[in-house]
């Protein structure tokens, strides 16, 4: 380890100054490269370059900023001429036949997972921000950007540097950086997870319960019970095999057809976390013992409403409502909460998805009824009418507006323009909006 090489008396200052940033530099290089192994090598190279230049460090910036600047340029040099690291879904092919032959391509430099560190920061906001910035879907989306776009976006949007600081780090003008950022954000919006599509914290009771049931179903070789945990748009991919599979039935067929396990006890799974997400290491039976087989990384969404204590602002409960929970709209009498579930976690979802409206009773904190959109839909943002008899919501992916009868959940649709998003339902006597989804104080 270079840390040991820096442990001499002459280099003790450098080691003490730089070593605390090793883990976040690893995450930074991982975002840039999509490879844990490459990131480890690049952090070592960063430390070596920094150590050689430490006597010229003038302290005009923090050590942290200085190290990230060196790491960024080390990554940019390493990425010259390299192909991006994809997941199977990023190869551009349609979803695969689960009964077909598995095609393995070991020559492809696949995106790699990042095991979580046990030394998380104490600040919850830092933990959440760190998780989202190494989320596998986010890192996969970064791979669609050029290396300089990637560097500009990570430094500006993840590390929160000023555009001028980014420009100085990568040797560009501020105008050039802003242009890089504009193109990068546009591409990321198309390829990456939605900004409001937050991960479920892996240590939360809900995530732990779902991971426990996932592991139990695999170990019992109960595939029917397993796929009940998946959403209708769930995707299963397993590099170095190029195929990817979407939907409960396709995933169930794939496991039945291709998994080498044949009976309960053939698989053993150990829970862990990676990329800020729940994960499990799978071991497959080989004679009288089990050998390493796969790493399962689960992309869990909350898909519901968190109940927060208004005095302490701490979470006191969670109510599951449906896929793509987005908008919250209190009834006029204050007894119900209408929750719009737009049926997708994507920024640009498909039409006719499993969208629905969940009706929560404030007194019992339970979903008392769910109104699906007939024929599928994507209810998003809006509000209730003055008399409380209608709930107006945009149908974001279906180019319509929904007029929902709050007495029985019946739905009328009004065709409008492409991807309607926000609706202003007015007047709202005695209320005013807190923004975005029309939540009212």
What's the SSE blueprint?
Layout: H1 2-5, H2 12-18, H3 22-33, H4 36-53, H5 63-79, H6 124-134, H7 136-142, H8 147-158, H9 163-170, H10 174-191, H11 205-219, H12 223-227, E1 235-237, E2 244-246, H13 248-258, E3 267-274, E4 277-286, E5 289-297, E6 304-308, E7 315-320, E8 325-330, E9 336-341, E10 356-361, E11 366-372, E12 379-384, E13 390-395, E14 400-405, E15 411-415
Antiparallel strand pairs: 1-2, 3-4, 4-5, 6-7, 8-9, 9-10, 10-11, 12-13, 13-14, 14-15
Short description:
By secondary structure, this protein is α+β, with helices and mostly antiparallel strands.
First CA to last CA: what distance? 55 Å
Which structural class should the secondary elements be placed in?
A: alpha+beta
According to DSSP, the number of beta strands is 15
At the fold tier of CATH, the topology name of the largest domain is Butyryl-CoA Dehydrogenase, subunit A, domain 3
Percentage of residues assigned to helices: 25-40%
Separate helix tally: 13
Report the biggest beta sheet as strand number plus sense, adding barrel if it closes: 4 strands, antiparallel
Q: Return the average pLDDT rounded to an integer.
A: 87
Can you tell me the CATH architecture of the largest domain? Up-down Bundle
Q: Unreliable stretches, pLDDT < 50, 5 or more residues?
A: 1-9, 118-129
CATH class of the largest domain equals Mainly Alpha
Can you tell me the number of structural domains?
3
**Percent of residues in beta strands:** 15-25%
The value of Rg in angstroms is 25 Å
What topology, given as strand order, has the largest sheet?
8-9-10-11
- What is the H level of CATH, i.e. the homologous superfamily of the largest domain? PhyR, sigma-like (SL) domain
What is the 3D form?
globular
Topology pattern, helix = H, strand = E: HHHHHHHHHHHHEEHEEEEEEEEEEEEE
